[in-house]
């Protein structure tokens, strides 16, 4: 089994960033320890804090309520007039300011930063209390930490998965995955194929083999959802030499297997077709992707009836 190419790793990295932008909450990456001043602070005090902490603006709080923000340009204006005791409240900018809630996604903060062309966005909780600020730098650092943590965990999982056949001593070792699929469950359609695909990726399978397996299992899974009365089962047995997948149900069976194998032939209802399924390409797609395919069917419902589809792929 081969490792991912550089291009595939890059695409995986970009995809992970896109996911994290929507998964990460602002609270997990924002600055919570923020330099603030009270309304009674003078511009002299503000100037000293700005220089000490190498920042360009300071929130002005009354208790835990934000009443304004004073910046270096405000301070300079007072100092040019030699008004050293000017209060922060006299020069500060007042709300509203671009802001976000701490339980919103990082994507929301990025939108605000871009929309208002600001270097920072103020963060509040839902009680409208000021709880921090967030900058593009905070978001970048948060994403990098999350990505590194995620990839370390994924590397550990992949290492363990890829060595499973080497670490276990037996005459023949196989990994068996079992899934139950319900009839008519379009909401969860594709869930089993997605899990099998992820397992193959963690085992370090060739990406082309993973793609073929994912296509074949997805088509078979959707057939269980669309064409059976009780759903069915998917069993994937993975060994170093081959992957064998068996999909079975208890009815109603396929009256004409040869006809069912024809591209474009479909017995799906108009309702199913309106949902975008039932194009009649499922079994032909499976045959195209697999090294071996065997389809057996007994018309009727109940034990001993229904369809069994066996698919085999020999890893490249």
UniProtKB/TrEMBL annotation:
PANTHER family: CBS DOMAIN-CONTAINING PROTEIN (PTHR43080:SF2), CBS DOMAIN-CONTAINING PROTEIN CBSX3, MITOCHONDRIAL (PTHR43080). Residues 30-85, 92-149 form the CBS domain. The keyword Methyltransferase does not apply. It comes from Candidatus Moduliflexus flocculans. This is CBS domain-containing protein. It comes from the Bacteria. Keywords: CBS domain. The keyword Calcium does not apply. It holds the Pfam family HATPase_c. InterPro entries: CBS_dom, CBS_dom_sf, Diverse_CBS-Domain, HATPase_C_sf, HATPase_dom.
């Amino acid at each position: 089994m081969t490792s991912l190419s550089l291009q595939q790793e890059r695409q995986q990295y970009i995809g992970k960033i896109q996911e994290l932008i929507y998964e990460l909450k602002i609270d997990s990456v924002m600055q919570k320890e923020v330099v603030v001043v009270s309304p009674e602070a003078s511009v002299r005090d503000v100037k000293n804090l700005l220089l000490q902490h190498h920042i360009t603006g300071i929130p002005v709080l009354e208790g835990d309520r934000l009443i304004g923000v004073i910046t270096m340009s405000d301070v300079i204006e007072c100092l040019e007039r030699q008004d050293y005791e000017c209060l922060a409240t006299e020069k500060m900018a007042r709300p509203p300011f671009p802001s976000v809630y701490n339980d919103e996604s990082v994507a929301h903060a990025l939108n605000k930063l871009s929309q208002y062309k600001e270097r920072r966005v103020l963060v509040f909780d839902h009680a409208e209390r000021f709880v921090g600020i967030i900058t593009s730098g905070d978001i970048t650092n948060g994403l990098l930490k999350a990505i590194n943590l995620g990839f370390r965990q994924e590397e550990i999982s992949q290492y363990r998965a890829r060595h499973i056949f080497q670490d276990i001593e037996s005459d023949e070792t196989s990994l068996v995955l079992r899934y139950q699929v319900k009839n008519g469950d379009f909401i969860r359609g594709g869930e089993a194929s997605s899990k099998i695909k992820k397992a193959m990726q963690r085992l370090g399978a060739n990406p082309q083999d993973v793609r073929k397996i994912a296509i074949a299992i997805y088509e078979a899974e959707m057939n269980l959802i669309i064409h059976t009365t009780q759903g069915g089962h998917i069993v994937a047995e993975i060994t170093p030499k081959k992957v064998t997948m068996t999909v079975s149900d208890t009815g109603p069976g396929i009256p004409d297997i040869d006809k069912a194998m024809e591209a474009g032939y479909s017995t799906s209802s108009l309702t199913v077709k309106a949902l975008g399924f039932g194009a009649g390409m499922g079994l032909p797609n499976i045959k195209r992707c697999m090294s071996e395919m065997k389809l057996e069917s007994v018309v009727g419902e109940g034990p001993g009836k229904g369809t069994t589809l066996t698919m085999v792929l020999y890893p490249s």
